Each structure stands twice: as structure tokens, then as C-alpha cells.
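Ticket #4471: structure output looks truncated?

Reporter: J.K.
Steps to reproduce: submitted the chain below (332 residues) through the standard prediction queue, then opened the result file.
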Amino acid sequence: GPLDVSDVVEAASPSIVAITSESIQVVESYFYGTYQIPSENAGSGIIIGENDEELLIATNYHVVEDNNSLYVQFTDDAEACAYVKGTSPENDLAIVSVFLEDMSDDTLESIAIAALGDSDSLQVGEPAIAIGDSLGYGQSVTTGVISALNRNLFADDPSRTPEYLIQTDAAINPGNSGGALLNVRGEVVGINSSKIADYVIEGMGYAIPISTAKPIIEDLMQKETRRKVPQEERAFLGIAGTDVIEEATARYEMPEGVYVSNVLEDTAADEAGILKGDIIMYIDGERITHMEGLQGLLEYYAAGTEVEVVVMRQSNGEYKERTVKVVLGYQE
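Returned output as attached by the reporter:
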């Protein structure tokens, strides 16, 4: 008869969370001009560890991308604010963190850290259990078997998806995306992703094998969690800038980044020696491609923080890279 997985699910469910990501979509309409609508994205996550200050949750990148605010709901229905710790868009993986101080003792006692299995020892035909928690609906479980291993869905387009996916006939949908694919021992063998193949084969779901995900996740877990800084303490660089448009990259061989059109006097940028005409490429190791991204990044830094800024500066008709240390200032 059908496999009874209730014990497996009971053991695994405290490690599964619901993740809601709120973002603002900018809509352009012929009649109304440009306006903003809030949109919500929901998916699941797997508690995979904790450090001194935070609980660490693995999920899909597509569940958290472009978020303005993130919430995690635990198995006891308690909700907490969450922050993106690190992302790997090309693998559709992300780590989200919830600060322990934002969780009650009751919630901390009700949750569990997932047991990770070994996806390299999976066999085609063995049972597979997909578990997720879609906001508003609670946890859901689907079962099936491992249908295929090392699936490459888009052999002709290597940029599209990785070629190591687990294929399963356990239903994987947006609600349980980011949740766990379990073996009969209740160990996580894959991270479900509804994004990777939403139209390829009817009735098939895909998961990222845990053995592939593990090193990526471990790397992301080491990153510094970024929290937005309150407006009044926020850092100010002191430049006016414009995006380098594609035409300029082609015609003038300008690198893509933010072109400094003006440096305001006595600001952080001025004191650090950033010049008008410089093109800002990196701030603190983050690639900067447009002014909006630069401004967004500064929301995470407090005034007084020292950052490394990499600029391209023209000398003798060609751009050379320079690194300057900038102590970010306050907005006047």
C-alpha cells in the first residue's frame, strides 16, 4: 500500500518554515503613468543551523529576490523579521537569517535544525517526500519517488539551469519551493525549486541535491548579515552620479558602473580622493552597475564605516583601476 510517512513528517516539520517576501513592483501604464503596487511572494525554507546570534534558513533565491521586507513563520505560527544573508542566484539558493533576539523562548523550543542526508547515495525509485509551508495554508506534504538523477533540463542552453537536478514525481509547487525533499529517514536530500522547470515535463518536480547545495550554503552562511540602518544614521558618500549607458561602454570603451558627475565638497568621497569622471565599480566588494544599486547598498551602512571603493580612472586615454578607502559620512 502507500507509504505512511507521518512519522517522518512529524520529525521534520519543526525545521520547515514559511517565508513571505514583500516587494514593490513599479508598473508603467499608458493611462496612469508610473505607479507602485506591493506584491507578495511566498515559499518555504529549511532551518539548517544557528550561530551565536541568528537562526540560519536555506531557501530558493527566487523566493527572496527583490524583497523590501521578509518574514519567516515558524511551525508554532510565530512570525519574525528575516534578513537575506547571502544568495547564489545561478543555483537558485539563498540563506536567510532570523535574529534569535526576535524569537520567543517558546518558538526556539518548538523548532528543530534539519538533518541533512547524502544525495549522492540516492537511488532512482526510492521514496521521496516533499514538505513545505505555504503562508496561510500551513505545512503540506506530497510523496512520490526519485524519478531521475542528474537531470539536465536545458542541455542546449547551459546558462539556463544546472545539470545535477533531482527529478521527482512528488508535487513541487511555489508554496513548497525552498522546502525540503526528504528520504524515508527524514533527512533532507534536496531543496525543492518550483522555478527551475515550471513547464518542462508535466507532473515532474525538481530539487537541488543537498550534496551540491551544501558547500554553497556553507559559504553563504559565513557572510555578514546586512540590516538596513535607520535613516538618521545612514551613510553618505557625497557624489552625484549617473549610470554608464551601454552606448558609452561600446563607443568610448567605458567600463560599466556609476559615472561620478560631481563630487560634493568636504564629503566622504571628496576626502577619500574620488574625482569627477571616476567610474565606481565596487563598494565593499559588491559590484555596482547603476546609481540605484549604489544608493540601495548605502542603506545598509552606518556613517563612520570604512569601505573600500574600487574606481576606474582615466589616465592617458585608458581606464585604470584604483582602490580608495572611504570613511562614509553623514548626510548633511
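Triage note (M.O.): checked the attachment and the full C-alpha cell line is present. Helices lie at 6-12, 61-64, 105-110, 210-221, 246-251, 268-272, 291-298.
Status: closed, working as intended.
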